[in-house]
Amino acid sequence: MSKVLRRTVVVSNPQGLHARPADLLVRMATQFESNILIGRGGETVDCKSILSLLTLGAALGTELSVTAEGDDAENAIDSIEQFFLRGFDEPGFEAAGSDEVTETDSTSSA
Description:
Elements: E1 3-10, H1 19-29, E2 35-40, E3 43-46, H2 50-54, E4 63-70, H3 73-85
Antiparallel strand pairs: 1-4, 2-3, 2-4
């Protein structure tokens, strides 16, 4: 029996969902058998089509609804959500809530 799952993700990358992350998202989505749709404001597109993804014009802060239907829907939607949370794995992107704690040496020789 196939599952239908829905989740909301937010574009947290300053450059939005541009060509490079759209390509990575398509590559990720095609690894799953599930039918995966993504959209906003009534427009829903196939997550396995780069041209369709780019038509969403998803800029920083855009909320997108992701729907996955199929036997591996849970894995698919979890993977996609994590990709969005990581800011599309862009260099220099730091996910919200991932503040680094740096340890300093309090022993200094004078």
